[in-house]
């Protein structure tokens, strides 16, 4: 994985060293561009890509993060369960405080590192649709045999019988 541009050093893509900004005057800001394929934000959140630019600014309160990231979650269609990338755009606007206090959610670490992982994860989860579908007219799976109806009808549909009788018919076929 190549380090993010603009001279920031990080061991992981979402960890930014803001020491340079903190050691210079207030009001200084930098842009950090992301273009990362196949990023595991956390164990349960995998992205097909993460792209975009964040402006990070040194304010009297800390480091302000502003910008927009385009990403796509690796997920599956709610109806037909086909794996799919779910594209999302998240807007970030958050202060990482340099005055740690019990209520501060995001804090600049003592090593001048800010870890964007929890923030990015939170925003992506909020932006994720509850029931993503591969297409608005996805036909889903046959409730009886599990056939993907986008690939054409299954035999159950041709039979068009009461599911209770389908089980009997299945048993009869087996005999
Ligand atoms: Zn689908
Ligand atoms: Zn079927």
Question: What class, by secondary structure content?
Answer: alpha+beta
Number of domains: 2
Instruction: Give the number of helices.
Output: 4
Strand/helix succession: EHEEEEEHHH
Overall outline: elongated
Main sheet properties: 4 strands, antiparallel
What's the mean pLDDT score? 85
* Ligands (ions, cofactors included): zinc ion
Helical coverage, percent range: 10-25%
Strand order of the biggest β-sheet: 2-3-4-5
Residue fraction in strands: 35-45%
Strand element count: 6
Please tell me how large the radius of gyration is: 24 Å
| N→C terminal distance | 59 Å
Uncertain runs: 1-11
Protein described:
By secondary structure, this protein is α+β, with helices and mostly antiparallel strands. The termini are far apart. Helices cover 19% and strands 37% of the residues. It has helices at 19-23, 117-127, 155-159, 163-174, and strands spanning 15-17, 29-42, 45-58, 62-76, 83-97, 113-115. It folds into two domains: 15-127, no CATH class; 139-175, no CATH class. It is elongated. It contains four helices and six strands. One zinc ion is lined by residues 77, 79-80, 82, 133-134, 138.
């Amino acid at each position: 994985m190549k380090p993010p541009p603009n001279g920031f050093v990080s061991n992981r893509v979402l960890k930014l060293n803001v020491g340079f900004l903190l050691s210079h005057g207030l009001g200084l800001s930098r842009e950090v561009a992301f273009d990362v394929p196949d990023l595991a934000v956390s164990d349960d959140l995998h992205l097909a890509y993460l792209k975009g630019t964040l402006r990070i600014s040194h304010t009297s309160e800390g480091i302000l993060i502003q910008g927009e990231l385009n990403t796509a979650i690796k997920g599956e269609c709610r109806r037909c369960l086909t794996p799919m990338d779910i594209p999302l755009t998240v807007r970030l606007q958050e202060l990482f405080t340099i005055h740690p206090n019990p209520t501060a959610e995001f804090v600049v670490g003592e090593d001048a590192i800010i870890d964007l992982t929890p923030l990015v994860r939170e925003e992506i989860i909020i932006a994720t649709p509850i029931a993503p579908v591969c297409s608005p007219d996805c036909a889903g799976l046959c409730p009886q045999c599990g056939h993907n109806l986008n690939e054409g009808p299954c035999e159950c549909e041709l039979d068009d019988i009461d599911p209770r009788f389908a089980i009997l018919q299945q048993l009869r076929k087996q005999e």
